[in-house]
Amino acid sequence: MKQITQTGATKEEAIFLALQKLGVTRDQVEIEVLQEAKKGFLGFGARPAEIRVTVMEPKEETKAQEEVALEEKEERATVVEAVEENKAVIENAELSNDEPKEDYLDPIESAKQYLTDIAKTMGIHDLKIETETEGKTILFNLESEKAALLIGKHGSNLNALQQLTQLVVSKNAKTYVTVRLDIENYRERRQIALEKLAEKMADRAIRTGKKVSLEPMPSYERKIIHNALANRLDVETYSEGIEPNRHLVIEPVK
C-alpha cells in the first residue's frame, strides 16, 4: 500500500502536490486531513495544511473493466485496420481497372454483399441490411446485435464503412449516387447530441470569454455545429487544423 504525508498552503494544494508525486488521480486515493491550514495574523500563528494520502488497491471489478476496455480498444484498432485495408484494395482496383467491365453488377446488391463480407471479418454474422432510394441517395439501414461495434467511437467505424460502401457503389453504378449508412437511427441521435453540445460549448465560451475548441470530427458533423449556432449573434464558429484532425472552434463575439 502506497502512502505519503504532504503539506501545503491549503488542503487543496497539499492534495494536488500529493497526487502529482504519486502519479494518480483523486478517485484512486483516500485522503485523511491531519491538520487544517491556518492563515494566522500578520504572519504569526500561520500553519500549513497537512494530509495523509493512501493509494487504494484496485478492486477486481475495476481490473475487469480495465481489461474489457483494453479488449475493446484492441478490437477497434483491428476494425480500423480492416477498414483501411479494404479501402486500399478497392481504390487500387479502381486505379488498375481502366477498361469497363462487360458484366454488369448491381451496385446495391454488390454493396450489400461487400458489407456482409466485411462484417464477418469483424466477427459479426447477424448483419441485416435494408435499403431505401431517394433520388440520387441510397440509404443502407444496418441491423445487428453488435451495433456498437459497427458504429465505433463517435461513429468512426460507421463513417469508414460508409466511405467503403460509397466506393463499391460508385465502381458499379452507371451514374453517381450518394451513399448513406445508418444503424438504429444513430445519425439522428448523433445530430441531436451534437446540437446540444454546440449550445453547451457556446454558453461556456460566453461565460468564460474564451474560445472553445471541440474534438476533431468529420466535415458533416462540423456543419451540424455550424448550423446549430448560425442564429446566435454572440458567438462565431470556424474550423482549424488539417484532416483528419480538423476541428471546430467556438469563439465569443467581442
Automatic annotation (TrEMBL):
Organism: Ureibacillus thermophilus
GO terms under cellular component: cytoplasm
Subunit structure: Forms a complex with KhpA.
Protein name: RNA-binding protein KhpB
Gene Ontology biological process terms, A to Z: cell wall organization; peptidoglycan biosynthetic process; regulation of cell shape
Pfam families on file: Jag_N (PF14804), KH_KhpA-B (PF13083), R3H (PF01424)
Highest taxon listed in the record's lineage: Bacteria
Biological role stated in the UniProt entry: A probable RNA chaperone. Forms a complex with KhpA which binds to cellular RNA and controls its expression. Plays a role in peptidoglycan (PG) homeostasis and cell length regulation.
CDD domains referenced in this protein's UniProt entry, alphabetically: KH-II_Jag, R3H_jag
Signal peptide span: none
